[in-house]
Amino acid sequence: MIAYGEKIREIAKKLLAEERVDLIIGFKQGTLPLMTEPVMIKEPEKTDQLYWSSFCSMNLANYLPKRKEKIGIIAKGCDSRNIAVHIVENQIQREQLYIIGVPCTGMVDRRKIQSLVDGKEVREAIESDEELTIKGNGFEQTVKKIDYLQDNCITCMHRNPVIHDELVGDLVEERKDPDPYDDVKEIEELAPNEKWELYSNLIKDCTRCYACRNACPLCYCPTCFVDEADPQWVGKSIDPTDTMTFHILRAFHCAGRCTDCGACQQACPVDINVRLFTRKLNKDALELYGCEAGLSIEERPPLDTYQPDDYDKFIR
Amino acid sequence: MSETVITREEIKEFIKSLQGSYEVFAPVREGGYHRFKQLTGDEAADLDFSNTRLSPKSLLFPQSERMFEFTLDETNEDSHILKETPKEYPPAVVFGIRPCDAKALRLVNVNFDNPEFTDPWWAKRLDSMTFIGLGCNDPCSTCFCTSVGCGPFHEEGLDILLFDLGERYLAKALTDKGEQLLGQGGFQEDADVDTRKRAGELKKEAEHKISSHVPTDKLKDKDLLNLFDAPFWDEVAFACINCGTCTFLCPTCWCFDIQDEVSKNQGDRIRNWDSCMFPLFTLHASGHNPRSEKVQRARQRFMHKLKYYVDKYGNGVACVGCGRCVNYCPVNIDIREVFKLMNEW
Ligand code: SF4
Ligand code: SF4
Ligand code: SF4
Ligand code: SF4
Fold this sequence. Notes:
- The complex is a heterodimer of chains A (316) and B (345).
- By secondary structure, chain A is of the alpha/beta class.
- Chain A has helices spanning 4-17, 77-88, 110-116, 151-154, 182-188, 192-202, 211-215, 240-253, 263-267, 275-289; strands spanning 23-29, 36-41, 71-75, 97-101, 124-127, 131-136, 139-144, 166-167.
- Chain A has 2 domains: 4-109 and 149-315, no CATH class; 110-148, no CATH class.
- In chain A, the strands form 2 sheets. In chain A, strands 2-1-3-4-8 form a 5-stranded mixed beta sheet.
- The radius of gyration of chain A is 20 Å and the shape is globular.
- Chain B has 345 residues and is an alpha/beta fold.
- Chain B contains 11 helices and 11 strands.
- In chain B, the strands form 2 sheets. In chain B, strands 1-9-8-7-6-2-3 form a 7-stranded mixed beta sheet. Chain B has a 4-stranded antiparallel beta sheet with strand order 5-4-11-10, with no helix packed on it.
- In chain B, strand 10 and strand 11 form a beta hairpin.
- The radius of gyration of chain B is 22 Å and the shape is globular.
- The A-B interface holds A 30-32, 35-40, 58, 62-63, 111, 114-115, 119, 121, 123, 137, 205, 207-211, 213-215, 223, 227, 229, 235-239, 266-271 and B 31-33, 49-50, 53-54, 63-64, 138, 140-142, 235, 238-239, 241-245, 248-249, 257, 259, 261, 270, 272, 275, 278-280, 283, 326-328, 330-334, 336-337.
- The structure holds iron/sulfur cluster (4 copies).
- Residues 59, 82, 215-216, 218, 254, 258-264, 275, 278 of chain A line the site of one iron/sulfur cluster.
- Residues 59, 82, 215-216, 218, 254, 258-264, 275, 278 of chain A line the site of one iron/sulfur cluster (SF4).
């Protein structure tokens, strides 16, 4: 996956030089070892800033809604699915996009790496195809990347971009595991009060910074319901009721649209796995409507269409 | 002022003994990171940390705080009258605060307690607290405190500063409050010349280990509008997702919003942290928003810290170089880069 960087720069340079796109959205190297920064490039000479590593975890589809230009965008499997969702939801037109697909073998979870070294500061990270070497004061360690992937990458079933105009490498093998929802099933087994406790505990440190919401490509409403001042739908303090209201409503707004890209979880400054909300809804969307979000640019999300044979057991 | 040697055991005992007469707040590790918490029972501080994920500002300036209460019940003679929510200010000790965070509290103080306005809750809390700082022997690569008028053993805002000498600490009293608190420990051993020398070396070594430096020298003389209109903001802000992470984690961000919350006839006036990154922050009642675009909001954060504050208060930038925003911005927007851009523009 390391070699992708070179290919990305090459493609981007060509696209800009030939004026086939107005700009490229990709990643540049971060100022910290386990980070990258989304970047927009407009000049062919600046394409050498483009970069690829196992820490390109943000979802670049987030930067598309309402843009008018012709855009070249780098897309992992999950980003491509969110691009498809955007196209279906009219946030961007397919013709505007030149999708540079990245067959993905998974992003490494920076927090897992940090807890591996017990919170000590990682000052340098060197990657090869399979391995990652991290160095800091008084330690140096080499690990297999596959052992430290983001949770969502471990269960990801669509590592290859679902739509693309060009690929930066050969397609990778998709995971065949038929059931990525073990964690959700465990929660489904719990009694209602236990579920409530689990979720209340999950968000007890939430600061309502909204990084989870804002990192998510799905959240493009001009004014989010939590930001609405008149009428005010939900209190703005960190009262547990208001915080829970935010999380539950956010998750339901993502139902049948979420691609489990993990950007929300990665963005949270206090390590909350908000995917535990959306994953339950993803599972429901799959089981009740046979829907996995973002696999096609034709199919509308299950909750804004109607089919006569739709699941309706909840109507009594 | 005294300089005393205290063993690791003694300091544990001391902190424990203080719990009888003070509320003691200290870093503890919960989940994957350290946070300030009131110690109760046998819970001990965990000083094996670089810094707490969230700054200790919430001890004085809680994220959500009830200010007033009111009733809308017209049959009540106090109907529609705001009544201050009763609060207590028991003496408190903040143990293990880092020098950058202690300085940050002084910096925030110019907003909450100045000749024009005094925020009574902030001021009384600050007054009720004694700060025992812990110098940083091993600063992180993202710490740039020495560039912004602070440092790993900076004393501003502290009552006592601890030097970690391995098995023992040197405790340096910096104020009468600190002297008095140390006195309660009944520590016998005054630091001898060698120990004081060792502490001095530790400080120098730590300052030397700071590997991040940012330029600030030209900020003051820059033309404000020129900076405001600089062409680099679009690039700086592109990746920004306008979350509140940088401002909520920052020890020097002080903005808040005031909200009335009413349930049936009973109401509370609450103050919540707010963030210049949020569109609602500047939304006018008319519907107009002077900072409707993300780039305007991102620029505001940097302009406030590195220019408006500099011009208004004349005591440097509104940043103590703790590196929290650098480490936890989900898209790696790095204020150190913005320092360079602004200073060199
Ligand atoms: S909810 Fe989270 S996992 Fe789902 S699409 Fe949004 S950011 Fe990705
Ligand atoms: S990113 Fe984390 S702290 Fe911020 S609102 Fe989401 S869950 Fe809460
Ligand atoms: S700079 Fe980073 S942390 Fe701050 S609002 Fe932007 S994305 Fe969030
Ligand atoms: S701006 Fe960033 S580095 Fe400066 S004090 Fe705030 S969080 Fe720390």
